């Protein structure tokens, strides 16, 4: 996960502080992570764990009796280690993408370089002029009235309208070392809709500006050897669905983590009926 300005990690996930004051705003990714179940993660974690065991079956068999506690911790951590590495790679890809779009120097990172090359290829294919066509990159978006905020990866003009008319796109970068370039998750639509219908954006000097009128939304999947821009239907219907997840997140974040057990009190105990003489 990238680290946008004004974003703070809390015990309940990421929140944004508002330079204008007022309550903290829950992040869009926090909402999705809290209230939207990612059904694909469980089979993915099982698959990784099974593959690890099968690839190391001899050494695991040797350690079962002599090193069982450490072996158990190691196997349980397989999917977490892979997930953490993927998240770190995604952060580095986002950073490199932002630096390229801004014309800033890009750190030498051999693992990230193929993904950056695919971004450059995509921009070239669309004939993008970075000075004329890029509206904003990594810009913070606020919806104070609803109480959430997020960061848009890229606002860019592309000639996708009738007759090649330029349309303003809101694009979110997604990187993966294993998924095909055309694959997306349903919750990507909710993320884009949440950002699209924010009310304001923060300028570099922390002043407000109206959220630009977004005409199209999509995910730009960057892979080491391919890329794909996948349009997503991030419309008002999707935004209503996100607002439902937002309400669930608020409830979950405010709910106690434990409740007291109910025990009978002496006054509430029934007295056993007396038998007739």
Share in helix: 40-55%
**Beta fraction:** 15-25%
Tally of contiguous helical segments: 9
Low-pLDDT residue intervals, each spanning 5 or more residues: none
The average pLDDT is 91
Radius of gyration: 25 Å
N→C terminal distance? 77 Å
Question: What's the total number of strands?
Answer: 10
Which class best fits the helix and strand makeup?
alpha+beta
Give a quick account of the main beta sheet: strands, pairing sense, barrel closure.
10 strands, mixed
Order of helices and strands: EEEHHHHHHHEEEHEEEEH
Rough outline: globular
What is the structure about, briefly put?
With 277 residues, this protein is an alpha+beta fold. The chain has helices at 28-35, 41-55, 57-63, 68-76, 78-102, 113-125, 130-133, 186-196, 236-254, and strands spanning 7-10, 13-16, 25-27, 134-143, 148-158, 167-175, 200-202, 208-210, 216-222, 227-231. Helix 1 (28-35) crosses helix 9 and helix 8 packs across helix 9 (236-254).
Give the topology, please.
Elements: E1 7-10, E2 13-16, E3 25-27, H1 28-35, H2 41-55, H3 57-63, H4 68-76, H5 78-102, H6 113-125, H7 130-133, E4 134-143, E5 148-158, E6 167-175, H8 186-196, E7 200-202, E8 208-210, E9 216-222, E10 227-231, H9 236-254
Parallel strand pairs: 3-5, 6-9
Antiparallel strand pairs: 1-2, 2-3, 4-5, 4-7, 5-6, 7-8, 9-10
Helix pairs in contact: 1-9, 5-6, 8-9
